[in-house]
Amino acid sequence: MNGTAEQMKGRAGRLARLMPSGPSTAARTPFVLLVVLLLAGGLISLLLLNSALNEGSFRLSKLKRETTELTDEQQALQRDVDGYAEPDALERRARELGMVPGGSPAFLDPDGTVRGVPERADAQPAPAPGTSAAEPASPTPSAPPAASSATPSTNPTTPLPTSSGR
Q1: How far is Cα 138 from Cα 128, in angstroms, rounded to an integer?
Q2: Which of 4, 108, 149, 166 lies deepest, with the highest CB count within 10 Å?
Q3: Helix/strand/coil for 162
C-alpha cells in the first residue's frame, strides 16, 4: 500500500508542478470584478426599468379615472340638455321670458305682396298648474288688427311663381 501512496504522491507532485499556483489568483481578480460590475449594472437597469413601468402604470390609472369622471360629467350634462329641450320645458321657459305663441304666419314675396293673413300674437295667461292645457283660456280683449297697406293675396295657399334668375 505504501507503493501506491508514494506513486500517487509522485503523480500529484508532478501535476502540482505543472499548474502555476501564485499568479493564477491575481489573473482572476479583474474577471470577478467585471462579472460583479455587470451583475450590479443589470440589477440597477432592471430597477430603473421597473420604476419607469410603475410610473407609467400610475399615470395610466390616473388617466382612466379622469376619463371615467369626464364621461360621467358629460352624461349628466347631456341629461340636462335633454331636459331643457323637452317641449314642455321650452314652453315654460318661453312664457317666463314673456314670449307668446304666434298666430298664423304671413309671408312677404319678393315683389312686395303679402301671402297669408297677418295676425297679432296676443298674450294669453299661462295655464294654472292644476288645469290642463286643453281648457280654453279666458279671452283677453285685444285691438282689431290694423289694416295693412299691402293687399293680402286672394289665394294664400297657392305660391306665386318666382324667377330663378336663369
Answers
A1: 12
A2: 108
A3: coil
- pLDDT per residue over 58-113, tens digit each? 999 999 999 999 999 999 999 999 999 999 999 999 989 989 888 788 899 999 99
Helix axes 23-84, 87-96, angle to 10 degrees: 70
CB half-sphere exposure, 135, CA atoms < 13 A: 10
Contacts of 140 (CB under 8 A, 6+ apart): 122, 123, 124, 125
Residues 6+ apart with CB under 8 A from 135: 127
For residue 133, the one-letter residue type is: A
CB atoms within 10 A of CB 99: 13
